[in-house]
Amino acid sequence: MTTKPVSHATTETSGVWRVITASSVGTLIEWYDFYIFGSLATILSAQFFPKDNPTAGFLSTLATFAAGFIVRPFGALVFGRLGDLVGRKYTFLLTLVLMGGSTFLIGCVPGYESIGMLAPALVLLLRLIQGLALGGEYGGAATYVAEHSPEGKRGYFTSFIQTTATLGLFVSLGVILLTRQTLGTDVFNAWGWRVPFILSAILVGVSIYIRLRMSESPIFQKIKAEGKISTNPLKESFGKKANLKMVLLALFGATAGQGVIWYTGQFYALSFIQKICNVEFAQSNYIIALALLVATPFFVIFGGLSDRIGRRNIMLAGMLLGVLTYRPIYRAMYSLADTTQKTELTFRQSIETKKERVEGTDEFKTTTSAVRYYDDGTVYREIQPQPGSALTAVSKEVTLGNEAFWLMTVLVLVQVLYVTMVYGPIAAFLVELFPTRIRYTSMSLPYHIGNGVFGGLTPFIATSLVETANKTGSLDSYLQGLWYPIGIAAVCLIIGALYIDKKQYKTVED
Fold it and tell me: How does the UniProt record describe the way this protein sits in the membrane (predicted)?
């Protein structure tokens, strides 16, 4: 009887799962830290920016959120180089500490009313540190897991790392909703929003303990022992024409399209539901959270499938579906919350008046809400401030009826399924493009430009396009923001279809 030879990169299955667990816990917490800011954008805009122009404040918050994405490629260069020189383990341990510390400090920054413009300046600085840290985290975690995975199952095992980004968003939404429900809406809006940020210190402490017990990648240990470590990973990655070509192909044929699909299906969907559809805060977060919960296993399904049929076709199919269906999906989402298309129950109209003390002052805010009810269970509130009230902005709030709520959740779920198609296989795809000695550096840069810059700017650019369309009176102005992700995904789809091999397999040990 013959025994099938085992690659030196292959560990026992239990060992692989220990590696995945240790890597995933830390990466999930980093994504949680990074995305809590985006999940709370509507509240943070009132905390760190002047309240006299809510739209400008919200766009400024999105811009601050996007700044963390813009610097991610720089983090990829700094920490990618460090990971190829020193090792995978200690590099993404360092990124975890930086991310956790920055998130904790954002929860401690005083608001605009206390320290003026210093507040948004400090938050911006901390967001930049977060972005740098995340720029070094993902490449390290994906490389570490891939270098422990059996050949032929790399897509399956690395797909568990891919779930952490969505699970991090899911956890952030869960913590936010639990904190809000425990403290109450008014307390949460006043200071309770800080709790999810401060809580990250505990989560990071647990993750640091777990990661300290990890060993270095066996592949990296081997090339280090053989003296094959790159002396200049940046030069080898981007100074050599052959490798630079693969970096550019990874960016414009895969990660840019993957990035806009990822952020459209999750973050822009949340922003659209809250700011354009005016759906009530808690209900909008429940919609996203439910869609994420149902869709998350599909990261693993598509990652495993990519081991059998190749990475390219699955990723490109996700981009194609986004290009073809985003506008119909968002038109349907808008119509679910559009009360002009519903039958009002006029006999149930009511007026609600509420007077409350403004937290930390002797002023009171008084609001009058005109409440309207519709035959599908939808409730619409238009909240008007009374003269002399500390509250100056008019706000609109739609609470969807049961059927509309579930239909909205399904529409978001469809978008998140596109996300799982493009994101599930991409870690294995990137790892297989580059040699071990410069893998951390080479894969991190195109990933973080595509995902961080092209993708991370999606909520800000899309919202800005909608605002511009509103001012110019464009037809279907609420859909104009979709041209950005559709355009990027279409270009990436064409390049990927033309230039990426149908099957991209490579021995990770080189």
Answer: Multi-pass membrane protein
Exposure letters 64-96 (e unless 16+ CB within 10 A, then b): bbbbbbbbbbbbbbbbbbbbbbbbbbebbbbbb
SS (H, E, C) 150-176: CCCCHHHHHHHHHHHHHHHHHHHHHHH
Closest by CA position to 133, among listed 168, 102, 163: 102
Burial of 44: CB neighbours in 10 Å, binned 0-12, 13-18, 19+:
buried
pLDDT tens string 415-426: 999 999 999 999
Name the burial class of residue 182, with classes exposed (0-12), middle (13-18) and buried (19+) by CB atoms within 10 angstroms of its CB. exposed
- 280: which 2 tokens? 């009530």
Q: Please tell me what DSSP assigns to residue 189.
A: I
CA dihedral 303, 304, 309, 310 (to 10 degrees): 40
Structure tokens at 230: 């790159």
pLDDT band, very low/low/confident/very high, at 1 (cuts 50, 70, 90): very low
Residues 72-90: what's their mean pLDDT? 78
Do residues 315 and 155 lie in contact, with contact meaning Cβ atoms separated by under 8 Å?
Answer: no
- Give the Cα separation of 231 and 224 in Å (integer): 11
Give residue-wise pLDDT tens across range 286-331.
999 899 999 999 999 999 999 999 999 999 999 999 999 999 999 9
DSSP bridge pairs for 322: none
For 444, phi and psi rounded to 5 degrees? -70, -40
13-340+400-499 CATH pick, 3.90.1150.10, 3.30.450.40, 1.20.1250.20, 1.10.1740.10: 1.20.1250.20
Q: Which helix (H) or strand (E) holds 395?
A: strand 395-399
Q: What are the pLDDT digits (tens) for 140-193?
A: 777 778 877 887 888 999 898 888 878 888 888 888 889 988 888 888 888 899
Confidence of residue 235 (pLDDT cuts 50, 70, 90): confident
CA distances (Å), 322 to each of 299, 332, 496, in order?
17, 15, 15
Determine the Cα–Cα distance for residues 79 and 63; give it in Å rounded to an integer: 24
Determine which of 127-131, 386-390, 496-500 has the lowest per-residue pLDDT on average: 386-390
How far, rounded to the nearest angstrom, does the alpha carbon of residue 40 sit from its chain's CA centroid? 13
DSSP per-residue string spanning 353-368: EEEEEPTTSS-EEEEE
Q: What are phi and psi of 350, to 5 degrees?
A: -150, 165
